[in-house]
Amino acid sequence: MQTKSRRRGSLEHGERDHGVVDDLTLSSCISNGEDLGPIIRAAFEMGKPELLLHQLRNFVKLKETEIEDLCKVHYEEFIHAVDELRGVLVDAHDLKNGLASDNAELQHAGNALLGKLDELIESHSTKKNITEALDSLKICSDVMNLCVRANEHINNNMYYPALKLIDSIERDYLTKIPAHDLRHIIERQIPIIRVHIEKSVNNEFSDWLVQVRSIAREIGQQSVWQASSARKREMELRSRQREAEELSRYGGKECLYILETEDPDEDDSILKFDLTPVYRAYHIHACLGLQDQFQDYYYKNRQLQLNSDLQVSSSQSFLEQHQTYFAQIAGFFIVEDRILRTAGDLITNSQVEILWEIAVSKMISLVEDQFSRMQTANHLLIVKDYVSLLCATLRRYGYQVGPLLDILDKNRDKYHELLLTDCKRSINESLANDSYEKMIIRKEYEYRSNILAFHLQTTDILPAFPFIAPFSATVPDCCRIVKTFIEDSVSFLAYGSRMDFYDVVKKYLDKLLINVLNEALLKLIQNTTLAVSHAMQIAANMTVLEQSCDFFARYAAQLCGIPVRLVDRPHASLAAKSVLLKSQGAAHEQMLVLVKTKVDEFMQLTININWTPEDPPYSTNEYLNEVIIYLETIIPLAQQILPLDALDSVVSGVLLHISEELIATFLSEDVQRFNIHAIMGIDADLKVLESHADQWFQVTGLHELHGATNLRECLLEARQLINLLLTNQPENFLNPVIRLKSYSALDSRKVLIIAEKYKDLPEKLFSRNPKNPSKKKSMDLLVRRLRDGL
């Protein structure tokens, strides 16, 4: 750096002195190999390039002189070097000739190799082209094979593998296909194929929608049949359980073991329906990225189908089409449940619930409307039974069927009103067609169907045939009607929203027995044209029906699954039992009225009695003969028909009525006067009647009745009156002690009226009954004293 600075300073100094660099500086710069650019630039800037050129020439000459001097100093060495150089030139010439010869040979050999090399290069190029062609052909071949396989899958309706192949072609091969035309064709066909596949699966799905609607009814019918079979097995199990309960209740030592087996038909496997088109359509649309679109399409189409299924045909009555209607709906929702559980996200639980709510709302409205129009209980029961089976079927699939069951419960009153109407009609027909004669059973099967079936037997021993039942044909008919009513009532109330419905059945059963059966019997018994024998049989029938109330209550409890021991409690009996018992009293009273009416007809014959005969009668009066004949007919009949207490009520009531009629005859205006001979005739009548009363008391078995009094006591008033009129001292009636002992049944007013009518016999010569003046005085005294006392 210092040297350069000094040179730059000297250069500037030389330039200042001479306008050009000095020779020493220029020589030093050239010798040192320095850059002469600044010097040349300075020369041109000073306008003296010729001076610099002159200096350079002087430098060249100086160096040539130095070379010449140097050469002179080393001349010999130079000559020697030249000689050596000449020798080298000779060797170089030989070497050159050798190289030329070798080069010629090498060129000759190289030309052949170059030809081979060109051939090799051309072969490599050809090989490369062939390899590329083969690779292209392989790609095209693979693509074509994939296309062929895709076409085969499409032709075989195997759309998912076809889509996978198309996706593989598009992803792995499309950009590598060297044939532009082929690539363009494939690019153009891929969307077309996808659209074709989409249309194909949509067509299959549309066909499935049509098919599933046609098979939904069969699916629903099979499912409802399963529910019905399960219900029957449940009823059979309950029946066996009731039998076991009865055995244990009555001390049976046999044990009843029940093995519950699973019915193979109960399995859902019998509900075979193909959902492959749905699965495939949903899967294909998911592969095509159209999952949401297909979900919406499926839901809308199924909703339209449901709305169509919920429409009722106007060409048939609802009763004729209700099974197919509800089976169609059941099949629809069974299919939807299967789709929900197996088809992924095709349909959501909330969408199924919306469809179910639509169906429930429509079915409730329809059932309410149809029930309001039905006027036959059996029609309501048929529809209700199928609706309950529908509910049992769909409950297994998790659907909420409570609202449907509630609507059935709301119509139970109407159903039972219609059922009561039917039963009333049947009971009235049975009562109208009954002959009211004891039922004669000639065969064992008749005994079982008419007596054992309703527990009407009085003993467990099978009787000899023909067997005469204590009731008429109306009783088993009415029992059969009541039993059917219980079954129908339980059928309607069972499997509803309420599990414990025995009290409801009991309420309607009481209503049937009280408002229908009891009212019909009372109406019948109150018929004034009814024969006494018929009235007796009706009263006997009422007794049997009242006893049957316990059987009805137990039967209803059994059907309702209530333990019988709960029904046998004292306060658990039917209210109808006491009502029928009370009605029996009314029947007995009405029957007694009929007997009294008939007896009154015979008592009218007392107008033919001669109340003032001159001689005592030699036989009983005509009226008594008729009365005795009639009672001899009625009492044995009543004995066969009526229980002892009712028989006692009738016979004692009739005899009491006869006694009262005899007193009334004495009190009537038809009898103005009577004498002792007439009293003797009435006394004879009473003795005959009392004799028959004693006989009837023993023959009919009334003496075995607890608390029963002798039938003779029913004639006590008439007997005491006749005794009073026959006595020679009638004034003893005024004696309280004697009156209490002998005349306690007599009324003073009646005695006064009758005593006033007493007429003494006239005086006759040679009379067998001479006049008794003391009796006349006694009678007059009695009359006077009674008149004064009153």
Automatic annotation (TrEMBL):
One of its GO terms (biological process) is Golgi to plasma membrane transport. Residues 403-757 form the Exocyst complex subunit EXOC6/Sec15 C-terminal domain. Keywords: Coiled coil, Cytoplasm, Exocytosis, Transport. One of its GO terms (cellular component) is exocyst. Gene3D superfamilies: Dsl1p vesicle tethering complex, Tip20p subunit, domain D, Exocyst complex subunit Sec15 C-terminal domain, N-terminal subdomain. It is found in: Cytoplasm, Cytosol. Residues 55-222 form the Exocyst complex component EXOC6/Sec15 N-terminal domain. Its main location: cytoplasm. InterPro entries: EXOC6/Sec15, EXOC6/Sec15_C, EXOC6/Sec15_C_dom1, EXOC6_Sec15_N, EXOC6PINT-1/Sec15/Tip20_C_dom2. It comes from the Eukaryota. Belongs to the SEC15 family. Component of the exocyst complex involved in the docking of exocytic vesicles with fusion sites on the plasma membrane during regulated or polarized secretion. Involved in polarized cell growth and organ morphogenesis. During cytokinesis, involved in cell plate initiation, cell plate maturation and formation of new primary cell wall. PANTHER family: EXOCYST COMPLEX COMPONENT 6, SEC15. This is Exocyst complex component.
